[in-house]
Amino acid sequence: MAKSDGTYLKEIAKIERQQLIILDDFGLQAMDNQNRMAFLEIIEDRHGEGSTIITSQLPVSQWYDIIDEKTIADALWTVLYTTFTDSNYKANP
Questions:
Q1: How many whole angstroms separate alpha carbon 66 and alpha carbon 7?
Q2: To 5 degrees, how large is the angle CA 28–CA 34–CA 36?
Q3: Are the CB atoms for 56 and 25 separated by under 8 Å?
Q4: What are the tens digits of pLDDT across the range 27-74?
Q5: What's residue 86's pLDDT?
Q6: pLDDT tier at 90 (50, 70, 90 boundaries)?
Q7: Which of 24, 29, 57, 52 is nearest to 40 (CA)?
Q8: To the nearest 10°, the Cα dihedral for 31, 49, 22, 4?
Q9: What is the reported pLDDT for 93?
Q10: Which of 56, 52, 67 has the alpha carbon at shortest distance from 15?
Q11: In angstroms, how far is CA 78 from the centroid of its own chain?
Q12: Residue 76: how many CA atoms within 13 Å on its side-chain side?
């Protein structure tokens, strides 16, 4: 997505307006800087405005490694933690 032609901002705004965002399988690969910043922008701008469900095969304690930037991970965690529920669901094989 190009920032210069406004496509990026339009897509971010479209995502932020959704009542519910589901991020499935979060953490399959480490985030690069562009993904970290977009994720932070979406989560911060949606805070208190809509619901976000994040599923992951990784425990929350490993999310810092996936985000791969402590300051941004702290900022994300601060926003997410205010309404965070860790179901720690274990499926029966």
A1: 26
A2: 55
A3: yes
A4: 999 999 999 998 998 888 888 888 888 889 988 889 899 999 999 999
A5: 61
A6: low
A7: 52
A8: -50
A9: 45
A10: 52
A11: 12
A12: 22
Spell out the SS3 assignment of 14-55. Answer: HHHCCCEEEECCCCCCCCCHHHHHHHHHHHHHHCCCCEEEEC
| Length, in residues, of the chain | 93
Q: Which residue has the tokens 């599923």?
A: 55
Q: Tell me, what's the pLDDT at 22?
A: 93
CB atoms under 10 Å from CB of 18, counted, come to 14
Say whether pLDDT at 87 is over 80. Answer: no
Residue-wise burial string across 39-76, b where 16 or more C-beta atoms lie within 10 A, e elsewhere: bbebbebbeeeeebebeeeeebeebeebbebeebbebb
